[in-house]
Specification:
single chain; alpha/beta; Quinone Oxidoreductase, Chain A, domain 1; Rossmann fold; 2 domains; 7-stranded mixed sheet; 6-stranded parallel sheet; about 25% helix
Amino acid sequence: MNEQMRRWEMGAFGRAALALETVAVPRPAAGEVLVKVAAVSLNYRDLLIIANGIGGPLTFPFTPASDLAGTVVEVGAGVTRFATGERVISTFFPGWLDGLPTGDSASLPYRALGGAYPGVLAEYVALPADWLARAPASLDDDAASTLPCAGLTAWTGLVARGGLKAGETVLVEGTGGVALFGLQIAKSHGARVIVVSGSADKRERARALGADLLIAREEGDWVAAVRAATGGYGADHILALAGGATLGRAVEIAAIGGRIAQIGVIEGFEATLPLGPLMLKQLTVNGIGVGHRRSLEELVRAVDAIGLAPVIDARYPLEALPRALDHLERGAFGKIVVTLGPA
């Protein structure tokens, strides 16, 4: 094995502080495995972490990103969960295996890879075996790398927490990674899917993936358009991916007894909701913080069973991370993946 590797590091906040460094390949300690990284999927959250850390404590030099797919090339003492040669994906929240995350009303449970823990934009990473799950057999590494955050977030919002049923109506805001996973997961469960997007081109691409109704966000009152398209019914499930004031629109468009999965913060971390519709329609608002390892493993099994194919808008080599981040900032149709090559 080459004892040197490349890894993206930043010595301060801001894109200008990112540098591709050559460092020693780590060795796995007891309970850890060494993974040769094949692909890293980027998330909007990575832009925020690089910009300002989102208020979290980062230790510099810091390596961004949380979502990898790769192959175990060495195991540390006591590891029985994986063997050399097995394909794995990361878990977004290390150590959150099942149930509710730990924390209290003042201490938010937000200790994720590429944040509180160093990230994975490197040719090799050494991680505790419990922080990984087996990759789906039906996906290559590029596609598998999209599951730990975007795929699991949609799965948690619609299935694990949402209890999605066949015949229900799902509304998806936008056409980013979580949105398109939501579209595909909903269709695989027999749901009707509405996509709200400000891009005509992206609406047509969503139609090709199976969207039943396409609503132009930029043309007038899209809440009224959704109501008209559903005969006033609204949506049983809403993936609220914009955050900010848009969460109030989700309350307006929700059907009686509907469920809102609050996920995104692109339009801000603060929201004002119309309380009358929230109460009288008996709505449930689920705050979705990605999900635990058991749900990720359930998603992996579902992906293999239904043949779900994640949508990748573009792939960039490791050295082209700045261009990948530019693309992510402009807005992607699906996911942006940084590729490092197979083991």
